[in-house]
Amino acid sequence: MLGPVILAASRSDRMRRLISAAPVTKQVVDRFIPGETVDDIVPIVEELTAKGLELTMDVVGEDITTPGQAAAARDAYLELVDRLKDLGLGEKVEMSVKLSMFGQALEDGHDLALANVRPVVEAAAAIGTTVTLDAEDHTTLDSMFAIHEELRKDFPQTGCVIQAYLFRTEADARRLAESGSRVRLVKGAYKEPAEVAYQNKHEIDKAYVRILKTLMDGAGYPMIGSHDPRLISIGQELARKAGRKLDEYEFQMLYGIRGEEHLRLAAEGHRMRVYTAYGTDWYGYFMRRLAEKPANLRFFLRSMISHG
To answer: What counts of helices (H) and strands (E) characterise the chain?
Structure first.
């Protein structure tokens, strides 16, 4: 399987230098990451919202080694909030954050990440939107869930992400499927050991369906993070059986993948949110997109060959 190999490469400085230096890389990266600055991304936000889509914005970057870098990440999100306020799009655009960007892995990282993310959550609430805490590798999740619980005391709309391939997630989903919660379910995109995660796609898919049923039958707001046509159909059926209206759950897909499906779901009346990343530190995000789906890797390799 190439997925684990690509995920290992995502942590390699040597591979980062090689891929970043390839002439075709920027063209391919632009498919998934359509800009480096807030100014770059504003036209994309306006275009997608005008088509009836909603967005969740991610300022990419994970290699935070100093408190100063963590503060800079916080400020980048605050700049985004200011621009969304100016555009009047707070109700259409939320934000996704990785706590690693806010200093979670540093000394006293839990408290540092909470202190940095809180102003972003406060600013988002002030313009009528919210923040979802992205899940990262399994060693960070207890901290992430604790921060999520703390933020929800003042900002109950704060969302979080759970990953179907982890054994722990079915229990997490039962705990989170409560009134007012917002939970995005994804398959998972980090290299995890067999001791904590399913390794087989079929097992992951089965776990995804079990967990999604828990969320749909619960009292919270499920967010279906998948591009898989079968899982999308199952999600619709589970929502119907649970008696949910179209505005009581949503679909989420990545910018640059299955764009026609985004529009189809929106045209049918579904809430369809596009996960849109921007920023200069794109490497880790880009490599996980390649690892998640063979078609993404084939697209990249074809582009490199055709421009070689």
So the answer is: 13, 8
Beta strands of 147-271 (E only): which ranges?
159-163, 182-186, 221-225, 250-254
- Residues 6 or more apart whose CB falls under 8 angstroms from that of 197 comprise 138, 165, 166, 167, 188
Alpha helices for 55-108 (secondary structure H): 67-87
Mean pLDDT of the residues in the chain:
88
The active-site residue out of 58, 134, 172, 205 is: 134
pTM for the full predicted model: 0.87
Active-site residue, selected from the candidate residues 74, 182, 184, 271: 184
> Would residue 298 show up in a list of annotated catalytic residues for this protein?
no
Mean pLDDT by 10 residues, the chain (308 residues): 50 57 62 87 96 96 87 96 93 96 96 98 97 97 98 98 98 95 94 95 97 98 96 98 98 93 97 93 67 58 49
Place of tokens 């290699």: 63
What's the CA angle centered on 83, arms 181 and 128, to 5 degrees? Answer: 30
Q: Look up 134 and say whether it is catalytic.
A: yes
Residues 260 and 132: their CA atoms lie apart, in Å, by 25
Q: Across-strand partners of 253?
A: 274
Sign of CA dihedral 19, 22, 28, 29: positive
Residue with tokens 């299955």: 258
d(CA 176, CA 82): 30
Q: Which residues contact 70 (CB under 8 A, 6 or more apart)?
A: 64, 101, 102, 103, 106, 112, 113, 116
Query: What digits encode the pLDDT tens for the residues 238-279?
Result: 999 999 999 999 999 999 889 999 999 999 999 999 999 998
